[in-house]
Design brief:
The protein is of the alpha/beta class. It is globular. It contains 14 helices and 17 strands.
Length: about 375
């Protein structure tokens, strides 16, 4: 049963140098309107699936470069054509520079009840280093306008591991984050993906990322500081106030079926993982011809499902069930090395282990 729906909006006002998502700068509204119409058509391709939607997530790109009415029109279309839960969580990612009170009010009226603001930092030097186009006051205004519109579930993104960032800088950021009436923080380590401008700068030595010891200290600071302020880490990169976990993202980590719509979107249905073309022109042409824009498929056998279960469970605060681990002596080694602990039949990673989660997962496969 499909419980989650992800909708990819690939448009941006600027392209951040660290971003490796499928997105591009486009101002012309006609293409955006055409894209939304194609999302509707694509959704029809899957009308034979069994839906009981509990979450809808608009990600990108930057969904808030769309006129709010385009989003609300599509939300209403989804509700008319698909079975949805009475407790439907609808998240929209927003650039702090875009929407204001009237926009958030329209979203609220359509059922949007969760906003994720791409803040990244409240320090100007960090925003400049990251190539962001908003100011700290834009985020504060966005939070105020969300609340005024009646949307109380607000996430702020935080990026750490920025060139020149100190632990003092990070603590100052955390002070501001936790002073605001928000319910959720997503904190991501800055990563230099190979095909991004940032990746090029790091490779040629023009941009220096902190070493592993420093990033571990940063993660520990984030974890300890947020938990001291009532934010509980329930996943590697996510902290929330009680009962404000992101239901949609939890589906990704707990083997729940979801459908992805739009260019480059991925889906997971009946042990099949499939992804759409990353080329927006090809996406439009295929959908308009009545053809599913799927370009990548992977059938998950039992061994692959086990490996995914290990990797995804290690991300969670709740940990990995020991039944999925064949070599128990490896677990004992990991515990002795200070990477995690065993409790109530589960192996749970400590911050030191979370920083090298990929390597640990491979050892447990």
């Amino acid at each position: 049963m499909i419980k989650g729906l992800y909708v990819h909006i690939p448009f941006c006002n600027i392209k951040c140098p660290y971003c490796d998502f499928t997105s591009f700068v486009w101002q012309e509204n006609s293409l955006k309107e055409r894209y939304i119409e194609n999302l509707k058509k694509e959704l029809k391709f899957y009308s034979d699936l069994d839906f009981n939607l509990e979450t809808i997530y608009f990600g990108g790109g930057t969904p808030s470069v769309l006129e709010p009415k385009l989003l609300t029109n599509f939300i209403e279309y989804i509700k008319r054509n698909i079975k949805t839960s009475s407790t439907l969580e609808i998240t929209v990612e927003v650039n702090p520079k875009t929407y204001r009170y009237e926009d958030f009010k329209l979203l609220k009226e359509s059922g949007v009840n969760r906003i994720s603001l791409g803040n990244q930092s409240f320090l100007e030097k960090n925003l400049i280093s990251l190539g962001r186009d908003h100011k700290p006051q834009d985020t504060i205004k966005s939070v105020e306008d969300c609340l005024k519109a009646g949307i109380e579930n607000i996430n702020l993104d935080l990026i750490y591991g920025i060139q020149g960032q100190t632990l003092e800088d990070l603590e100052k950021d955390l002070e501001i984050y936790t002073s605001l009436p928000i319910t959720h923080v997503s904190a991501y380590l800055l990563t230099a993906y190979e095909d991004t401008p940032l990746g090029v700068l790091v490779k040629n030595g023009s941009y220096n990322l902190p070493d592993e010891d420093t990033t571990l200290k940063m993660f520990e600071l984030i974890d300890e500081y947020l938990e001291s302020k009532g934010f509980y880490r329930y996943e590697l990169s996510n902290w929330s106030k009680k009962n404000y976990e992101c239901k949609h993202n939890i589906f990704y980590w707990t083997d729940v079926e979801f459908l992805g719509l739009g260019v480059s979107a991925w889906s997971y249905v009946e042990n099949l993982r499939f992804g759409n073309t990353k080329n927006i022109n090809e996406y439009m042409e295929l959908v308009e011809k009545g053809i599913k824009p799927v370009k990548f498929t992977e059938k998950l056998d039992e061994n692959k499902k086990r490996e995914e279960k290990i990797f995804l469970s290690l991300r969670l605060r709740s940990g990995l069930d020991l039944e999925f681990v064949k070599e128990r002596d490896i677990l004992e080694e990991l515990v002795k090395e200070g990477y995690g602990f065993i409790e109530n039949g589960k192996f749970v990673l400590l911050p030191k282990g979370l920083m090298v989660i990929n390597e640990i997962a491979v050892r447990l496969f």
